[in-house]
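Dissemination and training. As part of the outreach component of the grant, students in the summer workshop were shown how a complex can be specified as a set of sequence lines and then modelled as a single object. The example used during the hands-on session is reproduced here so that future cohorts can follow it. Participants entered these lines:
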Amino acid sequence: MIEIRNLKVHLGEFQLKNIDLTIEDSGFFVLMGPTGAGKTVLLEALAGLVPVLDGSIVIDGRDTTRLPPEKRGVGIMYQDYALFPHLTIEHNITYGLRYHRHDRHTARKRFERLVNDLGISHLLKRHPDTLSGGELQRAALARSLIVEPRVVLLDEPLSALDQNFREEIRQLLRQIHRSLGITFFMVTHDFSEALTLATQAAVMNSGSIVQTGTIKDIFQRPVTSFVADFVGMKNVFPATFSGNIAQVGAVSVEVAKRHGNGNGYIAIRPEDIVISLKPLDSSMRNSFAGVIRGIVDQGFLYEVHIEVHDLTFRSLVTKGSAVDLGLDSGMSVSLSFKSSTVHVF
Amino acid sequence: MVRREPFYWVSVSCGIMVLAFILLPLMEMLTAPSGAMLKETLHDPAVVRSIRLSITTALSAACISFVIGTPLAYVLARSQFRGKHVIEGIIDLPIVIPHPVVGIAILSVAGRNHWLGNFMSELGIRIMGSTTGIIVVLTFVGMPFYINALKSGIEAISPRLENVSRSLGASMWSTFARVTLPLAWRSVLVGFIMCCARAISEFGAVVVVAYHPMIAPVLIYERYEGYGLKYSQPVAVWLVLVCLTLFLLLRILALPGKKTS
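and obtained this result:
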């Protein structure tokens, strides 16, 4: 368990103020907040990399507030991976082993298990500059985990990856977290990452924690307008589930994963909704006829509001597509989205 | 064919002028002595001794700069503290102070009228007219080049690499030895070369502190004063050739393109 009490950090003009957090043992804690909120500073304070002005950090009953980084048992993984460029992937991963009392045989076995689990056994002799983002991410994760830290700190681990790798690494993080039982502390500015990974979460702004709780709590009961705005995924609807069908008013939405029966919410990102003039003959499981009720200019994109029965869906389209399709208010269109793009919670 | 802008031709003309300005006197000097004169000079023990002394004292100054300048360069690259700019200014002072003044300044603390000079004298360390004195002077004038080159090199290395190393269990020492130094080795080498080059070319400060034993620039000056241009040129040619070979070897080691920094 990590207990942060009344933590204060001053870094030039920036301050972390009275941070109070309790993170459950073996949990997956996600700290959210916009850029510049102080997430990485808090992460580095936990790792002992920035000086703490006041307060305490207790990890598994041990006060680590004044301990140097190497004595804390806290691993850190940055969004740019920070793999040592002069070392091969193998030497990167085994870098920390000499500082921990492990017999060679056990360390070797753990190394082999990790590189196999993470699918990087074929990359060991290569240098970081020859690897893709996803491969670097796996190598950095293996390097953090091999020394068996009490806590792994993840600084926006998905933000530097393209969409294909992002889902892959997200699943990997979930799987590794479950199998190793280490406490993960991740910071992100992307609410959807928290939705899929967090067992516990907090929202931070201007150096202070604004709200903590389960991700559902934060989403359903934001305590400030900032949190409401921050978690404001568009196209969020209360739904009644029956198998893989979510009934939202008069609209039946097919979802990828069965939710079981009962009530919940669905959310669809506006960029996942495709607008067409006629129903599309495609693999997308959800397709509805609707009427455009408004078009909002968002710089490079338009946000199109489409009324389907009693619901209003918001979709993002490029300006070029809007002109090609001749989109205009009052026009009848068809909207489609994949069942896999529907977030259920 | 694309018509060049006048600015292009001005740049080319200036470039040619600069190259000619540097190369013309050097080429003239290098080609002036005959092969026989060069050969004869190489057999002059005083010349060989002075060039050897120039190189060994310059290398010693660079080694001292490496040992005591490296930790300081690291602190200046990584830390923000009040008075940092003042310290950086002090480090740069030897670059801007006139060279004879450097010699006089060193003598003022190394003489018997100063407690430090007395203390060193009791330890048997002599600055005036000694190889030790030459090394002190060359370290004084060369160290800023080493510190500044390494400081820039360390600043270019992401501190996150060091943070990760610490979080994996490495101490600051271990992190410096296993991460920072291997990544900054090229800057170390460049700083070392610059320090050496500056030290080998020093004349004004050395001539005040230690006319004897004679380093090559002092010998060249003496030959010029005593016998004229013709007799100083072959020594100068040998000094330039030896130094160029040495620096070329070091530069080849530090050629860009290798993926270590």
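The radius of gyration of chain B is 22 Å. Students were then asked to discuss how this feature might be tested experimentally.
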